[in-house]
Design goal:
Length: 281
């Protein structure tokens, strides 16, 4: 069992310590810093979790800054999120989620206390495209209520799901995840306005459309251009003429807002998915 020398007490639940190898750690635990002073010692039994600076200096600094203003309950909530994602989805999350989700939840709680509800404009699409992540996020909301004694609005499940999605991919960041959802939402809005319709959100065709738009949006965000298949273009060009006019609006939106030029083949695929969803209207 290790002994850790306290170098700084951040609050009653968070202290900075050095281990026997002189490595700096953040030690967390209920009351771990209560009544403690610099130079005193704690043991493994005193802490519930620890983060070592040498593992990731950038993560360590961000975590240090976050923990100076949030309570240890937020660490417990993120621990729960990591475990439930592993259990339900079989996915190991990027440790960055400790910083990003704690930061998000702490501000969400502040807003809830002031009765300020932040809507999630992509919530309907998230529920469908990322159904599994959304179901986990709802469990996290329930756990937040249990630990913090405050019920966050249901829209927060959408934001939590986005953080989970982001943390499953170490190469992306939350801004990329948000951009993907903004593009999907924007394209869906254009189709709705062009045809003056509402989609049947439980239909298989709508699920296919959103799945296609999700990958389409990721290519835009990552600046990946899909190669044209001339045989496919020649076979389908001239079909779905009304849907092609709607696609013209989408092409304009994507070019103006994201500087991305949609390929001819992608235009045709979009028209096919749009046609499937509007042909029965």
């Amino acid at each position: 069992m290790g002994n850790y020398k306290i170098s700084k007490v951040l609050n009653n639940n968070v202290v900075i310590v050095c281990d026997e190898k002189d490595r700096e750690l953040i030690a967390l635990g209920g009351g771990v810093g209560f009544g403690k002073k610099r130079g005193e010692y704690i043991s493994d039994e005193d802490m519930e979790k620890k983060f070592i600076a040498a593992d990731s200096e950038d993560l360590y600094k961000k975590l240090f800054n976050t923990l100076t203003r949030v309570s240890v309950e937020y660490v417990d909530i993120v621990d729960y999120t990591v475990e439930i994602v592993k259990k339900d989805l079989g996915i190991k999350l990027n440790p960055q989620i400790y910083v990003l989700l704690m930061d998000h939840l702490s501000f969400a709680v502040e807003r809830a206390k002031e009765h300020l509800n932040l809507s999630c404009p992509m919530l309907a699409e998230i529920k469908i495209i990322y159904k599994n992540e959304y179901n986990v996020a709802k469990k996290v909301l329930d756990y937040c209520e249990k630990k913090l004694h405050i019920r966050l609005p249901s829209s927060e499940a959408g934001f939590i799901a986005m953080h989970i999605m982001n943390a499953t991919n170490c190469t992306s960041d939350i801004n990329q995840t948000l951009d993907v959802m903004v593009i999907v939402n924007g394209v869906v809005r254009i189709i709705k306005e062009y045809y003056q319709i509402e989609f049947e959100e439980n239909s298989l065709d709508y699920l296919r459309l959103l799945t296609h738009l999700n990958f389409f949006a990721k290519r835009i965000v990552l600046k990946q251009m899909e190669e044209n298949d001339q045989e496919v273009i020649e076979l389908l060009q001239g079909k779905y003429l009304e849907a092609q006019k709607c696609v013209d609006e989408i092409v304009k939106y994507v070019k103006e807002n994201f500087g991305y030029t949609i390929s001819e083949q992608e235009r045709i695929y979009l028209a096919i998915h749009i046609n499937r969803n509007v042909k029965k209207k």
